[in-house]
Amino acid sequence: MKVKLIITVLMCFLNIFKAQEKENNFLSKNTFEKGDSHRLSSPTDGRISLRLAGNGSYMTILLGFIPEGTVNFDEGYDGHFINDGAAVEFYSLLGTTRLSIQALPELNMTNVSVPLGYELTTNGTYTISIDAEFIDPNFDIILEDTYQNTFTDLRQISYSFSGEIGEVHNRFKINFDNRSTLDDHQIEENTKNAHVFFSSNKLHIQTYRKDLQRIELFTITGKNLLKTKFTKNVHINNLSSGVYIVLLTTDSGEKMIKKLIKYTN
Fold first, then answer.
1. pTM (2 decimals)?
2. How far apart are CA 144 and CA 230, in angstroms?
3. Domains in the chain, start-ordered, CATH in brackets?
4. Which of 82, 164, 190, 254 could form a disulfide with 250 if both were Cys (CB 3.0 to 4.6 A apart)?
5. pLDDT digits over 88-142, tens only?
6. Rounded to whole angstroms, what are the CA distances from 185 to 3, 156, 255?
7. Phi, psi (5° rounding) for residue 38?
């Protein structure tokens, strides 16, 4: 009986060690081949670690957008989730397969969405945040909560939610949204011309300009929520917390773009 118990314990430690070793290799700069030496010191080499924490426990997962990655299971890079029974279980999903480590193709101009799953053993408040990331700054890292219809820029703020006991596979997605189509220079200039912010259930625009004609409000994924004649105070009821894009258009067709975060009232 003692021998069986010892073997079981050793096997458990071995599995944990293998998972940790794989995680370290995946994060290591040495993961890349010599031909990718130009990437070794790059702060945008495509890796990100996410954390789910709450009630004194946490779990992290790793995603990597690397040359060797594909949309399928990548032997030698992807790692199955093996920590069943933990107080907090957190993983990405490849179909129905749960992964602690997932390699994906390198980011390009296309938006990428990765479904996330979790399982909790206690009710409470839980938080999803970025542990570390080396993602191209031209991509926003947006956590989508499909239950609350919210979009949170994790570079700006972590996301807390009320979690209940059980397993959930259809609530969260981590979206990597390319924003290279926005003119950063234009955004900087327009910020000087118009101060835009949320307050309670209103969108406020403070500006000296007299030629503004139209205002539009979009979700971070491009869904149009509002299009109306310009006014400095716009009532917006039942707007969830998250990241939004405000587009102001002048009489001459000039466009002003501003990215905003709306916090919980």
1. 0.65
2. 29
3. 2-178 (no CATH), 184-262 (2.60.40.1270)
4. 254
5. 999 999 999 999 999 999 998 888 999 999 999 999 999 999 999 999 988 889 8
6. 68, 20, 12
7. -70, -15
